[in-house]
Amino acid sequence: MPEASDPKQLAARLSDRDGSLWPAGNVSANRLGWLEVPREMERESRRLRSFAEAVDEDTVVVLGMGGSSLGPAVLAAVRDALGEWSGRRIVVCDTTDPATVAGLPLEDAFVLVSSKSGTTLEPNVLFDYARTRQRDMRRYAVVTDPGTPLQQMAEELGVRQVFANRPDIGGRYSVLSYFGLVPAALAGYDVAELCGRALDADRVAAAELGAEMGRSALEGRDKVTIRVEERAAAFGLWVEQLIAESTGKEGRGCVPVPTTEDEAGEDRFPVAVGLSQAHELGELFLRFEVAIAIAGHELDIDPFDEPNVAESKANTNSVLSSLPLPETAAEQPAAVSAWLEEQLRPGDYVSVQAYLPYGRDASLEGLRRRIRDGHGGIATTAGYGPRFLHSTGQLHKGGPDTVVALQVVSPGATAEVPIPGKDYDFGTLIAAQAIGDRQSLLAHGRRVLRVATADLDEIA
Fold it and tell me: What is the C-alpha to C-alpha distance for residues 71 and 114, in angstroms, rounded to an integer?
């Protein structure tokens, strides 16, 4: 590992695209476009504003996964929470849950399909489904890398606009590229101001934060506890996936714990995030991107690859290739507390993984806090599946063996929603994803309990 440098040197080396910051064989050579893209998007801001102003619909549905969806979700949620201005309603769908998919307001919406590779299963099947309900292709736009199958299909279908993103940006670092800024423009943001805030970010201070974060993780304080004020709580979604997917590999990593409350412990590394105006997100995005790249330097890992993300995808495909679904045992909610008590060790964290319909955020957060408070203040995270498979799932398999996973699945299908061209529906797909991810966790020797319930409040 290169000898530690001071934050000014680290920031300068990063700005110079110095790939020797990370171990040999890293993929930084084609993953550092995020360093320059705010300047490019600042120049693109007028075009994005013109595009947004020409869209007549009051609702925008964003179909994507991972970095393609979490940035837009945070931009929309923070704007709404701060109540600074009224604009289009942004609905982000990054799930295969049939009830959530069936509830999308597609008939009255403009639809934005986002996928870096253009081959990701979830946005592709969501796009296929959306076209059964919204057939006007002038009410669609696509964001993808140049030359992908999605770009080719979109052009053949005659969608309103295809935004070809620069390809040297990974999904979790893409929020200040077209992937984040097209929906930002549609939501009413001033894209030039967002980019200007990013360009004004103090990269030296960000590098200092990242270096301290990485060193603290090596010393055992690896639970990065990000305290965000209630009105900006959605920011935790984005920063969680950035930290987890970037650093959780080779048995090391920083475990992000977004929270709106003070949480303390010997294994905690606290970070406070303040936000008074929505456009300040531009600075926050760039600050943490720099910090996590430098944390990767301190951890001696490649913060730009995701070596374990494909495992659950492969397991899902395997399950789907041999339908019907295999019988998979699930415990009752009452079994959770005793199981956790039996499994937990010092330095562990609990990951609640809810393969349930969206709209249960309060119950999910309530469960997270109950587990935390009922087990000595242990670091606890909570999120929806399959969303996390494209982000924090990397940490669960590739990071330290300190994860205790609680998988919560529905006891039955929440709706019957077919997928065009497939011999399975959305209910079967999300069930296969849960089964596949459990198989992947078990293959890595992780501790997993599968619980079937539609009511998170039943879990003590």
Answer: 11
Cα 301 to chain centroid distance, Å, stands at 20
Report the chain's terminal Cα–Cα distance, integer Å.
Answer: 44
Calculated CA dihedral for residues 75, 77, 82, 84, nearest 10 degrees = 60
Query: Please, where in the chain does CATH 3.40.50.10490 lie?
Result: 34-196, 309-458
The predicted-structure confidence for 54-90, as pLDDT tens digits, reads as follows: 999 999 999 999 888 999 999 999 999 998 777 799 9
Do the beta carbons of residue 45 and residue 184 sit within 8 Å?
Answer: no
Cα–Cα nearest to 56, from 110, 6, 11: 110
Q: For residues 75 and 70, give the distance between their C-alpha atoms in angstroms, rounded to a whole number.
A: 9
CATH 3.40.50.10490 is right for the domain spanning 34-196: yes
Global pTM value: 0.95
The CATH number fitting domain 309-458, selected from 3.40.50.300, 3.40.50.10490, 3.30.230.10, 2.30.30.700: 3.40.50.10490
β-bridge mates for residue 364, sequence order: none
- Beta carbons of 403 and 447 less than 8 angstroms apart: yes
